[in-house]
Design a protein that fits this description.
alpha/beta; TIM Barrel; 8-stranded parallel beta barrel; two-stranded antiparallel ribbon; 10 helices; about 20% strand
């Protein structure tokens, strides 16, 4: 995706708001709690133009390890997350190996890594058989990458939040047990967000899904999210909405 003229035109004005304050999550500082969700920039090619919108972080991907990542225009102040996954169906050993390949490919470029369990028609989710093994092997691989490169990148799992009455997803319980850094939660139910955050305890929760204005962004933060992400609001060129989100965020 190439940033539209509307995004570029309002970028400087938006940046004044987006850089007003910073937050700390996962041991990293973010110029703003407002970020761009995965699915807009698949390989990092458009980071320089997307940065004009003033996000505190941009999550690129989903990548599977075959992409040529391009971070040449990356601004020093912008946090980059890389969303990793597999193009195969299910969650068997071969699929888990794909996640590890993608992690090794992404690690040198990523401020944090996010293993995606929300891809439609992938045959896997936060409660799939194999989730426990996936989380454990991802953590081991992350630690190996950190030792090799000399830099620790936080590791999160992206899941669908499910219904308010559903049990806490296996991926959430395992992320806490394995002491990952957090969860990216696709959910618009504030009670569900708050409930999952309680189970995460000190782990970071990033909220995404259905955020279209400042009130919705603020409500996610009040429910326990440390960071929020938008997708449709940016794709539909609602830059004014993004600017107002930051102007009205909690201090």
């Amino acid at each position: 995706m190439t940033a539209s003229p509307a995004n570029e035109t309002t970028g400087v004005e938006a940046r004044r708001c987006f850089n007003h304050g910073s937050v700390t999550a996962m041991g990293l500082s973010f110029a703003s709690p407002l970020g761009l969700a995965a699915g807009v920039d698949r390989d990092g090619e458009n980071i320089a133009s997307l940065d004009l919108a003033g996000f505190g972080h941009i999550e690129i991907g989903t990548i599977t390890g075959k992409e040529k990542l391009n971070m040449s225009g990356r601004p020093a102040s912008l946090r980059i997350g890389v969303n990793i996954g597999s193009s195969r169906y299910g969650l068997d050993d071969q699929v888990i190996d794909d996640y590890l390949v993608a992690m090794r490919h992404a690690y040198p470029f990523a401020d944090y890594l996010c293993a995606n369990l929300t891809s439609p028609r992938s045959g896997r989710d936060a409660n799939s058989l194999g989730v426990v093994e996936l989380v454990g092997r991802l953590k081991t691989e992350r630690d190996l990458c950190a030792a090799a490169i000399g830099r620790h990148a936080p590791l999160l799992i992206k899941i669908d939040g499910g219904e308010q009455s559903d049990p806490i997803p296996t991926a959430v319980l395992e992320a806490r047990r394995q002491e990952l850094e957090g969860i990216v939660l696709v959910c618009s139910c504030l009670r569900r967000i708050a409930g999952i955050k309680r189970h995460l305890d000190s782990l970071t929760l990033i909220s995404v899904g259905g955020i279209g204005d400042a009130e919705q962004a603020n409500s996610r933060i009040n429910a326990g999210a440390a960071l929020v992400q938008v997708h449709r609001a940016f794709v539909e060129n609602k830059v004014g909405d993004l600017r107002r989100m930051h102007e009205n965020r909690p201090s």
